[in-house]
Specification:
Length: about 200
């Protein structure tokens, strides 16, 4: 059993400062002449009922994708949990799945694996695992976690792993495709990803 996709909103986390990318908005940085966020949209759209973009800049440029755009409610670039909290506040579905904007190799069964893990373990959170460690920005969350997450952030906490640890969370195994988590943080990473895109 898994969760019906219509009950899951996909949230693309594009709200960071991208300091290692020279401050260029990473979702809009081009990889093989295509903005990085388009790789994520294309991969995740068939896996969820609805999609939204979490971004703190360039809303007019992100608007071209026709998706709802949500900014962090907490100012000051507090990290991905701030984006998750704002998204959780917005969604109409019982679940949301998050994916970062800088990981162009999203597999077509990402949501299915997370959804099975959550369902089989009867948890409110499932997190991707690459065989060595969790990859916390790839996660599936129940919407009832909003209150807890808001309180956590208001108490000054920012660390995503620590928030997960307050719960029993399930892990979804991606050790067979660890390249899922190859993400592009620097201009050099673009070159590496390009060579992978061309090889595949
Ligand atoms: N909403 C929001 N997202 C953030 C913030 N900082 C980072 N992110 C997102 O979190 C993800 C991971 O950030 P990144 O800087 O690539 O971290 P790393 O690859 O784990 O070192 C990216 O999708 C960022 O857009 C923030 O302050 N707010
Ligand atoms: Mg990254």
């Amino acid at each position: 059993m898994s969760i019906p996709k219509d009950n899951i909103t996909g949230v693309i986390l594009a709200g960071g400062q991208a300091r290692r990318m020279g401050g260029e908005d990473k979702g809009l940085v081009r990889l093989n002449n295509k903005p990085m966020i388009e790789y994520i949209i294309d991969a995740i759209r068939p896996q969820t009922g609805k999609l939204l973009i979490n971004a703190n800049r360039n809303h007019e440029r992100y608007a071209q994708y026709g998706l709802e755009i949500v900014a962090d409610e907490l100012s000051g670039y507090c990290g991905p949990l701030a984006g998750m909290a704002s998204a959780l506040q917005t969604i109409k579905t019982d679940y949301m799945v998050t994916v970062p904007c800088d990981s162009p190799f999203v597999p077509d069964d990402l949501v299915e694996r997370l959804s099975h893990a959550l369902h089989d373990n009867d948890t409110k959170i499932s997190v991707a695992h690459n065989g060595e460690r969790i990859q916390p920005v790839f996660c599936l969350l129940k919407n009832t976690l909003l209150k807890s997450l808001t309180e956590y952030l208001h108490s000054g906490e920012r660390k995503i792993d620590r928030w997960f640890e307050q719960y029993q969370y399930a892990t979804a195994d991606f050790s067979d495709i660890p390249e899922t988590f190859d993400n592009i943080n620097t201009p050099e990473d673009i070159e590496k990803a390009l060579s992978k895109l061309i090889v595949n």
